[in-house]
């Protein structure tokens, strides 16, 4: 599997540092609240685990599954909810935990939906931000690392469901998806 990676963009050590700093920042910013960390499955899983280890305040963890890719390397821009929340978010502070912001379509749609359902505040914590990929206006509140417009895999990010288990984030060799 490691042979399919052209280069490493965010190393394991760098991910650790990002999670430590972001966890500290969130613990401080939300010290007077009991926020909901809302992970977007499946890509959020390693980041949610690594980040929340460093969160020192009371918090809840919830998940939704959304998709805009349907396999392949290009977003369809059409956001579908595959697994929804089973509890109310009315009056709650929400931090959406995401692996990457690319076109911005997923987070713009989900943020608006949560406000529509009565959330008090909705912020976004993302491991990666690919601003050059934006198709809709969207700014994340907590960003681990800004990356160039390349298709990346690892630490939750997949290509056709593979590579999520890589402990780092890397660029896939074009030969892999040109097959
Ligand atoms: P957006 O709606 O285009 O911002 O896309 C967000 C979702 O697209 C992420 O949660 C990922 O699942 C997926 N995605 C965006 N860029 C990449 C990438 O470079 N590699 C793998 N998945 C990606």
Summarize the structure.
The protein has 179 residues and is an alpha/beta fold. The protein has helices spanning 12-29, 45-52, 105-116, 174-177; strands at 5-10, 36-41, 60-67, 80-83, 93-101, 121-129, 142-146, 152-153, 169-172. The two termini are 15 Å apart.
Structural features, described:
By secondary structure, the protein is an alpha/beta fold. It has helices at 12-29, 45-52, 105-116, 174-177; strands spanning 5-10, 36-41, 60-67, 80-83, 93-101, 121-129, 142-146, 152-153, 169-172. The strands form two sheets. The protein has a six-stranded mixed beta sheet with strand order 4-3-2-5-6-7. Strand 5 (93-101), helix 3 and strand 6 form a beta-alpha-beta unit. 34% of the residues are buried. Bound molecules: inosinic acid (IMP). Inosinic acid binds at residues 43, 68-69, 75, 98-106, 151-153, 157.
